[in-house]
Amino acid sequence: MSIFIQNVKMVNDEMEIEEGSIYVENSRIEEIIPGTWQAEYPYNNAREVIRGDNMLVIPGLINAHYHSYSNLFKGTENYFPLEPWTLYTVAYGHALAEEDIKLSVQLGAIEMMKNGITSCLDHFPHISYSEAALQAYEASGMRVSFAPMMHDIPDHQFLPVELPQDILEQLNQSRAPSHREIELFYQELLRNWQDKNQKITIMAAPNAPQRCSTEMLAMCEKLSNEYGLHIHTHLLETKIQQEISEKKLSGSVDYLGRHGLVNSQLTVAHAVWLQERELELLNEANVTIVHNPHSNMILGSGRAPIGKYLRKGISVALGTDASNCGTQHNLFEIMRSTIMLDRIGELDFGKWLHASDVFKMATQYGACAMGKQEHLGQVRQGQLADLVLLDTTNATWTPENDVISQLVFNENGQSVDSVMIGGEWTVKNRKILSIDEEEIIWKVKKQRGELFAKCTSNLSFAEKQLPYYKSMYYSYSN
């Protein structure tokens, strides 16, 4: 399939605005023709021609930390810090069935694509439903780095929470998969899905260092080395994690490093509470950090010093995290929060982030997080054709003064007109083409009552544990 996007403005790889036309052949940007195309016929006799008058083309935005399962649980418990909040998200998650997972993946894909997000890194906890999730991604046309979580240490064994015997007995009835079972699971998943249609990539994904035994991390290193997998994990999201990991693990980054995982293949989400030595280790190893400002704020986890990380030369991508501890899956919102949060308390305005910095975080550094920096994140010849067309005829773009600044400070996704992923239209004229948006929304609304009814006993168990987690939390926060 060949597509000629004629006479548009585009954001080039230098973060400058360029006028020209884009020729897409199959899945890639084959040619960028500068200036105005005045010929009556399309370039190279392209089969489809898109008139680009009043359109701005940007690279597809990349959501570098995301949990698809959460899309059915918007608006639930969002008034706890991470440690007690986890009780509830686990309770809801245990109620999910295969069809719920498919709907949740596709619901998230709809929201992301209509907001100009073409790729996501899905840190996925429900590994037994991985096939269902990947089938849903394949149908949606989204690009995904799929990162099934591996862990074998539950929170109550890592955190210093004092639980009564009856609760411990109930918790101990659950058994996490062994490192050998996880290895076999990954091997089968890789056989079935790795790089399928160029849009699906599998990543090795420890849940978090403190939730993985030495055997589990050793197996992760083995998978990464044997199959060339990139690695994604949560890291030092909260102050409690930082304090306890220092005592129990001699530091989370050091713990990962002792298992050969601190290298350029690694991407870490949050990294709010890094010690200086840990930051230097990540920097030296060319690790990518993923900033999640909305979940960090909603859960009260803290404010990551992103400007400091960037000034050191670390690649920092952006994520929306989960729907039940975040807002919309909208990287325009995330960019805006990132640039404004960075300025709070920083009196030296020479250190403030600029709009071009955070736009790069949502695109080029997002590609680094997915291990695809040579293929994604820029409107450039040879790159995969993941493109977003914005209609600039609305009030947001009137007048048009500084495009990058207006993308970050003024745009909210309403201008997204069409989205191309790998040379295929998934959104056109604001309409989802790849899947049936109306049917998916109808199904989600229809099954909501049944799903939440299945959560009742799980939520009761979470409530039973809550006082003990509160006590533990306050003992560390005071």
UniProtKB/TrEMBL annotation:
Q: Give the top-rank taxon of the lineage listed in the UniProt record for this protein.
A: Bacteria
> What high-level taxonomic lineage is stated for the organism?
Bacteria, Bacillati, Bacillota, Bacilli, Bacillales
Arranged from A to Z, the UniProt key words for this protein are: Hydrolase
Q: Where is the signal peptide?
A: none
Please report the name of this protein according to its UniProt entry. Answer: Cytosine/adenosine deaminase
- Tell me yes or no: is Glycoprotein among this UniProt entry's keywords: no
Q: Name one Pfam family in it.
A: Amidohydro_1
- SUPFAM superfamilies, alphabetically? Composite domain of metallo-dependent hydrolases, Metallo-dependent hydrolases
Record-linked InterPro entries: Amidohydro-rel (IPR006680), Metal-dep_hydrolase_composite (IPR011059), Metal_Hydrolase (IPR032466), MTA/SAH_deaminase (IPR050287)
Which residues are in the Amidohydrolase-related domain?
56-425
Organism the protein comes from: Alteribacillus iranensis
One MF term from GO for this chain? hydrolase activity, acting on carbon-nitrogen (but not peptide) bonds
Q: Is Hydrolase set as a keyword in this record?
A: yes
